[in-house]
Design brief:
The chain is of the alpha+beta class. The chain contains six helices and 23 strands.
C-alpha cells in the first residue's frame, strides 16, 4: 500500500483529540514493553498498546530534514527543530504524531501511560521556545539522538509542559518513556513533580503506574520465581511432586494491573531462550507479547450507565539490528513489517502515512488434503 503524502514540510505536532471522541470516556491504558537480545547481538523490542476505544493507528515515516514545531495551549509555539535522523512508527487517532517507533540508527522509543504520577509545569512565556507538549517527546528523541548515551546528555534540554485535553478531563497526556538503543542499553524518562527523571533500565521492561523505581523494588517480592520446575520432595518417606509443568512460576501474578504485568514481563524476557539471530528473535518477541494481549471485555470500567473496555489495540516489534518495525493490530493479527531503509527510499524525502486498518485474512486449506 502506498503511503499518503503530507504536503506541508513544516509539521505541527500534538494530539488535538488525544484519546476520545466522547466526553468522559475512559482513557485507561495498560501498555507493556520488553526487549530481548539475540546471539548475533541484535536487540529486539516489543510493546503492546491498550486503550479504551479504537485508537486508529497508522504507520508514519518522518525523513531527516523535516522541520517540526510542538503545539502548545498558548498562542506561542513550542520548540522548533529540524530532524537529524529519520524515523518510523505509529501515530494515534490519525494525528501526524509518533507514540511508538524507531529511527534509522536503530534506537527505539515508546510512550506508555503514567496516570496519577506524570506532572508538567504550566507554559511560561519566557521559556516557550524550549517547551514541548509531552506527546511530542517521542519524535524529538528519535529525530535528534542515536544512542542512550546521547539521550542521557540531552533528555532534559526541553521542558515538557501542560497541554490540557478536554477529551481526557482537561488533563495533559500522562506518559513516561522507554528508550532502548541498538546496543541494548535502555533508560526510562518520567515527568515528575521535581522535573524529568531518568532511570537506567537494565531489564528493558516498562508498564504503567506507579513510577519505574517502585516497580524495580517490587521485584524483590518475586525472587522465588523460576522457569525451572520445582523438584520432588520427600515428606517422611512420601514423595510429593508438582502437578504438570510450570511449578517454578507458581505465585507469578496473572492479572492485568501494571505491577503484575511488569513482573511477568521480567520473568518471560529473562527466561527466554537466546536465539541465533535478531530476525528469529522478532517472532519470539511477538510470541512473548501474546502473554500481555488483553481480550476485549477482560477489563471493564463503569462510568455512569456506560461501560468502557481496555483492550490490546496493537502490538509492535522493533528489530534494532536489521532496522525493521513490525506491527499487528486487533482487527488484523497478520504481521506487517516496515524496512526503515526501504521505506525512506519510497518516501522520497516526504512525511508519509500508511493506513493500517484492514481485516484479518484466513487461509482456507480445506482443498489441500
Amino acid at each position: 500500500m502506498k503511503g499518503e503524502k503530507m504536503n506541508l514540510k513544516r509539521q505541527t505536532l500534538g494530539f488535538i483529540a488525544l484519546a476520545v471522541t466522547v466526553a468522559g470516556m475512559s482513557t485507561a491504558s495498560a501498555c507493556t514493553a520488553l526487549s530481548l537480545t539475540a546471539k548475533d547481538g541484535g536487540v529486539v523490542v516489543g510493546r503492546t498498546m491498550e486503550f479504551g476505544l479504537d485508537v486508529k493507528p497508522d504507520a508514519v515515516i518522518v525523513p531527516a530534514g523535516t522541520e517540526l514545531v510542538s503545539s502548545l495551549p498558548t498562542e506561542a509555539n513550542g520548540i522548533k527543530y529540524t530532524t537529524k535522523y529519520s524515523l518510523v512508527g505509529l501515530n494515534f487517532m490519525g494525528k501526524h504524531m509518533v507514540v511508538d517507533g524507531m529511527n534509522e540508527k536503530g534506537m527505539y522509543v515508546g510512550a506508555l501511560y503514567l496516570p496519577g504520577y506524570a506532572h508538567y509545569p504550566k507554559v511560561e512565556a519566557e521559556t516557550s521556545s524550549k517547551s514541548m507538549a509531552p506527546e511530542d517527546y517521542v519524535a524529538w528523541i528519535l529525530s535528534n539522538f542515536s544512542s542512550v548515551a546521547e539521550v542521557k546528555e540531552n533528555y532534559n534540554n526541553v521542558i515538557l509542559v501542560q497541554n490540557p485535553q478536554k477529551e481526557i478531563g482537561g488533563e495533559s497526556f500522562p506518559g513516561h518513556f522507554i528508550i532502548t538503543d541498538s546496543t541494548g542499553v535502555s533508560v526510562v524518562v518520567e515527568p515528575l513533580k521535581d522535573g524529568l527523571k531518568i532511570y537506567d533500565n537494565p531489564l528493558g521492561v516498562l508498564t504503567n503506574s506507579p513510577t519505574f523505581d517502585w516497580h524495580m523494588i517490587n521485584l524483590g517480592n518475586y525472587v522465588n520465581l523460576s522457569a525451572t520446575n520445582v523438584p520432588k520432595i520427600d515428606l517422611t518417606g512420601k514423595k510429593i511432586s508438582s502437578f504438570g509443568q510450570g511449578s517454578g512460576l507458581v505465585g507469578i501474578p496473572g492479572d492485568y494491573t501494571p505491577p503484575s504485568r511488569f513482573v511477568r514481563a521480567v520473568a518471560f524476557s529473562q527466561s527466554a531462550i537466546t536465539l541465533p539471530t535478531a530476525k528469529e528473535t522478532m517472532l519470539q518477541v511477538f510470541h512473548i507479547m501474546n502473554a500481555f494481549d488483553i481480550p476485549l471485555g477482560s477489563i471493564q470500567e463503569k462510568a455512569g450507565d456506560k461501560i468502557h473496555y481496555d483492550y490490546t489495540q496493537w502490538t509492535s516489534v522493533a528489530d534494532l539490528k536489521n532496522l525493521t518495525y513490525s506491527v499487528r493490530t486487533y482487527q488484523d493479527q497478520s504481521i506487517r513489517s516496515i524496512d526503515v531503509n526501504k521505506a525512506l527510499e519510497a518516501a522520497k524525502g516526504e512525511v508519509k502515512v500508511i493506513k493500517l486498518k484492514s481485516e484479518q485474512k484466513i487461509d482456507d486449506i480445506s482443498t489441500k488434503f
